[in-house]
């Protein structure tokens, strides 16, 4: 018994230090396939319903594709599936194009100027950002860092809102838009580092606020999508808290 214990510990440490496959493991492939099919069905039902009962709100090709891939990515993010990141890259390209069309400049910036490059960084962090170049573990922020995140969110909202208000005549709801952008930037940064607190930001300052903004700008499919995102963020919080408690990836 005493001889086998060090060997078992060494084996566990070796596994933790191993990088994860860039495109996931077999269980992640299966999980992503199910989530992808579910996302397509859910968005297809919405599209068919609007076409039948409210044709003026039926989403176009870009909005539909962006919504489907975004739902797909978030669905497997809360399961800590690394395939969420390459799927997310496709999603943010499409979403940025849609936001450009409806005048939400802050949201367009968020997609193309931030989400796109950070998804690549997050992909590397999740697979190779842990100790010894291994898979990154789920952890929590220290209390002082939580305060810093809150202060940064408020400051970024004020600064970005002023920039949008001063620089773009066609920008709408600038400070509201800016508050979502600021919280999203911080949430994605924390998500890239696999911090539990990222889900608190997704739940309130991002998802709940975005639902109201998208309804106001008649981006109804995105509003419906963010209702699903809110539910998934709550589930993600529960799952990631449990993962942090167990010390797993």
Tell me the layout of helices and strands.
Blueprint: H1 4-16, H2 26-53, H3 61-77, H4 84-102, H5 105-128, H6 143-167, H7 174-192, H8 198-216, H9 220-246
Q: Which strand-content bin applies to the residues?
A: under 5%
* Helix and strand composition category: mainly alpha
SSE sequence, one letter per element: HHHHHHHHH
Flag low-confidence runs. 8-13
Main attributes of the structure:
249 residues, mainly alpha, globular
What does this structure look like?
It is globular, with a radius of gyration of 19 Å. The model is unreliable at 8-13 (pLDDT under 50). The chain has 249 residues and is mainly alpha-helical. The protein has nine helices and no strands. The two termini are 28 Å apart.
Care to give the gist of this entry?
The protein is mainly alpha-helical and about 250 residues long.
């Amino acid at each position: 018994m005493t001889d086998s214990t060090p060997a078992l510990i060494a084996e566990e440490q070796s596994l933790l230090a191993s990088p994860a496959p860039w495109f996931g493991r077999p269980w992640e492939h299966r999980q992503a396939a199910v989530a992808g099919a579910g996302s397509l069905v859910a968005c297809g039902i919405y599209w068919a319903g609007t076409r039948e009962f409210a044709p003026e709100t039926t989403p176009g090709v870009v909005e539909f594709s962006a919504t489907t891939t975004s739902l797909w990515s978030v669905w497997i993010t809360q399961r800590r599936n690394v395939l969420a990141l390459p799927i997310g890259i496709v999603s943010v390209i499409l979403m940025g194009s849609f936001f450009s069309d409806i005048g939400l400049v802050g949201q367009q910036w968020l997609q193309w100027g931030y989400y796109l490059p950070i998804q690549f960084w997050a992909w590397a962090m999740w697979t190779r950002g842990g100790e010894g170049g291994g898979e990154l573990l789920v952890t929590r922020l220290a209390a002082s860092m939580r305060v810093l995140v809150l202060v940064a969110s408020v400051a970024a909202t004020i600064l970005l809102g002023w920039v949008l208000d001063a620089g773009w005549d066609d920008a709408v709801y600038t400070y509201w838009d800016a508050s979502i952008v600021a919280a999203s930037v911080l949430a994605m940064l924390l998500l890239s580092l696999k911090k539990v607190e990222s889900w608190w930001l997704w739940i309130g300052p991002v998802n709940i606020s975005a639902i109201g903004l998208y309804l106001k700008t008649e981006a109804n499919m995105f509003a419906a999508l963010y209702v699903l995102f809110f539910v998934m963020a709550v589930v993600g919080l529960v799952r990631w808290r449990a993962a942090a408690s167990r010390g797993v990836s």
